[in-house]
Design brief:
Elements (H helix, E strand, L loop, with lengths): L2 E2 L11 H11 L4 E5 L2 E5 L2 H8 L6 E6 L1 H9 L1 H9 L2 E4 L2 H9 L10 H14 L3 E6 L4 H12 L4 E6 L3 H4 L1 H11 L3 E5 L4 H9 L7 E4 L3 H6 L7 H5 L3 H8 L1 H26 L2 H35 L5 E7 L5 E7 L6 H8 L20 H8 L7 H6 L4 E3 L6 H5 L14 E3 L12 H14 L2 H17 L5
Helix pairs in contact: 3-4, 3-14, 5-14, 13-14
Amino acid sequence: MTYLSDFQFSGPAPTADTARASKRVKAPSFGHITLFGLPVVSASTQVVVERLLAPGRRSRVAFLNAHCGNVMARNPEYADVLHTADMVLPDGIGVELAARMGGDTIHENLNGTDFVPALLAEAGRRGLSVFLFGGRPGVAKDAADKLCLKIPGLRVVGTRDGFEGSADTGAAIAAINRARPDIVLVAMGVPQQDLWLARNARHLDARITLGVGALFDFLSGRVRRAPKIVRKVKCEWIWRLAMEPRRMAKRYLIGNFSFLARSAIHAIARTDRIAVVRRGLDLTIALTALAVLLPFFICLALAIRLDSRGPVLFRQTRIGRDGQPFEMLKFRSMYADAEAQRAALLLHSDRDGVCFKSRSDPRITRIGRIMRRFSIDELPQILNVLRGEMAVVGPRPALPEEVLAYHDRARERLEAKPGLTGIWQVSGRAEIGFEKMIDMDLAYVRSRTIVLDLMLVLLTFRAVVGGRGAY
């Protein structure tokens, strides 16, 4: 049956070219991280959809979540199926946590319940078609009806259930090919759906095939999704456990724990021991500092709000390790319109090189001058350390505009995770010129040790009390 739907930088002000280049620094690209030996996609929904729908491309797509990881560990055939898939997409908070254990970050959670509708929406805009195969009798048809109502332009060219409809594989393949779909969604559960596709996708004429688990149940309305607020805080698994406790208890309670334990063991096995020790040191220092300073932070937040209008925290995009952008936190030390005034001050920098600094910056508030004198404004970056975006010791994180102005040698400083403190911070801070700062950062990147990190942490206290170069 066919369903037709009606359904901070010194120098000249940034130019248009610089702005476009800055966007290129921040723009996500199609990349991978490695989990359990699998190349797992790390990219945005838009980037992945564009890649899948590129003309002339054929793709067998699988998803990896905690349950899939557990099945893969005990089913070698399924593990091989995932390793030979054209794309493995990350699905759920468990995979995100597993990636972080290994020191990686997944750009976006591409769970099938959200990703597949986005893929079909773009397919509809391009006049492409889809076939739904799997689920209990009637479920695929109901899901197709809902898709036709929600996605303009999408053509659902057929459905087939996963019980009697899948008993004869040859008949199922023939029925799908007669409908001539561009995309085939297979909903038979893990690992059956991916095993079926691994054996039969080459016999299908479709450009894209995906194993989509319980998607048809959600689309048809037979299973209710968690409210948006629950999904936003990444607790949809708790909702599903509450809705179906008997069926989901083993998967989510025992299964999630097993997956995370296996992920931790795997991460330790493939991680440099020095890196593990360094990360442990970072967490110990950051958590201790946060616990000790929390009452002070509360008082300081009140002082900032009383001193001038605006938020307590200042958030700014900085470039981290390997050129990855992240949002750095600081206590706000300037007036709320400081960024608007910045262009007028660029020609009056008191520091050589591409990094802007001014001793008499009129944008700084009264409480801000005190905070900067003792580097107190940098303390919220403890949260960046806890999130793994920064380290306690390392090169200071640069602005995207600054990185764009780097020469090749300066880019080597991006090989280390940016830090709260470092060699040049304890050697004069803003009094150090740009080229000298690069020399110091590269010396650290090339010869860093745990002992050196501890020495720099201790020297930081002296530098903060002395206040040299802090403005």
